[in-house]
Specification:
201 residues, alpha+beta, 5-stranded mixed sheet
Length: 201
């Protein structure tokens, strides 16, 4: 796998880059091309010729796969691209976030807000308390942090359970009447269970 990134530049810089990378680059006055980052690794400058432009390294909202081909029919995946270098004009403000808001194509405009599920609003203290309680339960202990309201409901529930156990057991359900075991439906004795067997045959 190769290491790749997206370089997004203003239209004026794009024309100069296109001219520099074309076949007649030897006649171009923009022969120097450089990209330098500061110590934080997120901000830097893009130099083309004698002009310097501010640049920022931003994370894309989703991973983009890149492919290459040698015969225009078979594609070979070369990399997963997750970052973009955004080159700005000198007067533009730098982005204050690490993740870029949009994707690379028009359908992915404002992708984080439109396409992805919102992160739940969780109280960090509640999460830590639940984690601690789960660890206690798994180690054989009990829950330590129970709210007073939950205690009140829990005690009432315990009393109801105790009272339910003290109630007299319900009478067993009446059995339906079954004809006697020695008679069949016609009232005649059934000869299958009798000890008087006829051995005369």
């Amino acid at each position: 796998m190769e290491e790749q990134f997206i370089l997004r530049v203003p239209p004026s810089v794009a024309e100069r880059l296109d001219h520099l990378l074309s076949e007649n680059a030897s006649s171009s006055e923009d022969k120097s091309l450089d990209l330098v980052f500061s110590e934080d690794g997120r901000t830097g400058s893009f130099v083309i010729g004698n002009d310097r432009f501010p640049a920022s390294l931003l994370d894309l909202p989703c991973v983009v796969e890149s492919y290459k081909t040698y015969d225009d029919s078979a594609l070979v995946k070369t990399a997963d691209v997750g970052q973009m270098i955004l080159v700005r004009e000198s007067g533009e403000a730098s982005p204050d976030v690490v993740e870029y808001r949009h994707g690379l194509t028009p359908p992915m405009r404002d992708a984080r807000k439109r396409r992805f599920r919102r992160e739940p609003d969780l109280n960090p203290e509640l999460v830590q308390r639940v984690e601690k309680d789960l660890v206690n339960i798994m180690s054989g202990g009990t829950v330590e942090n129970i709210d007073a309201e939950a205690n009140g409901h829990g005690e009432a529930g315990d009393e109801n359970a105790r009272n339910a156990n003290k109630k007299a057991p319900a009478a067993p359900a009446a059995k339906p009447e079954v004809p006697g075991s020695g008679e069949n439906a016609g009232g005649e004795p059934d000869g299958t269970d009798s000890d008087d067997s006829d051995d005369s045959m």
